[in-house]
Amino acid sequence: MIFWIVVVLLAGGLGVAMARPLLKGGASAAAPRGAYDAQVYRDQLAEIGRDRERGVLSDDQAAAARLEVERRLLAASSGDAPGAAARPGGAAPLLAAGIALAAPVLALLLYAQLGRPGVPGQPFAQRMEQRGTAVGQAGQPNAVPDAHPAGSGAAESMQSLTDRLAKRLEANPGDPEGWSLLARSYQQLERHRDAVAALERAVALTRRDPQLVAALAEARIMAADGTVPPQARAEFEEVLKQQPKDARARFYVAVAEAQAGKMKQGLDLLVALARDTPPDAPYLPMLRERIASMAGEMKQDPARVLADLPRPVAGAAPQAAPPPQATAQAPSPQGAVAPERRPTAADVAAAQNMSAGDRQQMIRGMVDGLAARLDSEPGDVEGWLRLIRAYKVLGEDAKAAEAASKAAVANPAARPRIVETARQLGVGVASAAPAPAPPPPAPPAPLDAAAIRAATAARDVAAFRRRLDGNPNDREALFQVGLAEAATGNRIGAAELWGRLLGQFDPGSPEFAALRERLDALKQGG
Fold this sequence. Notes:
The protein is an all-alpha fold and about 525 residues long. The protein has helices at about 1-25, 25-55, 60-80, 90-115, 125-135, 150-170, 175-190, 190-205, 210-225, 230-240, 245-260, 265-275, 285-295, 300-305, 345-350, 355-375, 380-395, 395-410, 415-425, 450-455, 460-470, 475-485, 490-500, 510-525. The chain is elongated, with a radius of gyration of 49 Å. The protein starts with a helix and ends with a helix.
């Protein structure tokens, strides 16, 4: 009832406000206008008098101008007389009354037709709660039309929005915030390589903003399945030059050191980070566990290493990695480097609620997956190093040694690095099998006079050069290399080789005579 009373009062006030100008009529506006005109004309008369005195106007001109202004002043003054102003006509009050009544009536009719007067009042929080319930029941009868069901529908919606954002940025590529948002969308869709490309655009547009550079480096780690690639490390080091206390950059640089086999340097960096970390930091528990794991791998006492470090405040929510923007690429609390797939934030949270046996089984599955992948991709040196450390953490030294040996055999160029990492972990590496002895050189083919005169050049001159390096008196090699030098125009080199060959023949032999003929022809330019 109160609602309707307020509505009637507001509608009535609106009608009165609309009718009031009609009731006042035109007289109220006419009088002020006539008075204003009269004052203007009086000023003009005074101005004419001043112009006459200064000589600007002649007597006749002044009289004519004064006469015209006086006529206008008289007309304006007569308009101000009582009864001269227009009064409201007889229709004006009726029109005003009609508007005053019609406005509220029309408003009430429209509300009754379009509004919902029977709906009770409802607080905003309650409306939002009901909307959330409707969204959760999408797909059921009476579900709200714009609710997005969980699962594939939401993923498709996210994909569609991401594609639209990408198309918009193609038309407007100079928007760094847009590229950053696109990168986050790609990460939600686990399109990490696309996220890297988007962040590269954002970094370039912001003149390498440190926060975006750090986000780009972390995206590279996600695209590399948790490994810190050299480019990501360089970008984190770039961030540290501007922000030496950036926890995220310090953490991943330490991880990169450990992944490169420099366990001591990596541990020292993590310890330094822990010393600068406040006790209420959510990532401190993970950081301490990581330090303890690395200390155990290096045969150090974890309790002694952790003794002087800050202890986490009870009740602090654990976080997977130090930086505020850290994602799920941080190592697992047990220190085993993730194999085929890095643990997500959900994996880490679930692992904390697992029993010891379930947690060990989860780690075992990840390690076995990494080992299976390396059997088909033996050239992944970083993967082998992670597998060696994982076996060491699990206490399976024999498997760690076997993995180290396989890695060294499959990657001979990286053997020193693999051996050094295994040594720091206390893992032995089998010595490389001795290279098979090269087969004995084939005996030189006989070089007779017919072969010298035929002078048939060999196809593989490089093989004869190698033979000559091993045996400077190889007759066939001396002759064939001499032929090659003569063919390239190096007559002096050919004559030197054939001269050495000539000294090996008996001066009365047919071979000596044939080679002498070839030397004479060479000197004559043949």
